[in-house]
Task: structure prediction
Amino acid sequence: MMQHLKVLEEADLVIARKEGRERWNHLNSLPIKQIYDRWITPMPVMPCRSSIG
Result:
């Protein structure tokens, strides 16, 4: 599991904080929100030009 957390931390998706012998991992929601905004938000509809008549 630590390897998975390390990959997520390197991708800035998880923020790790060490307190003594404990390690606290927190989700960094900003990159996930940016991905959501880019991929899930509907694209603006562009008007189509008809090539007929």
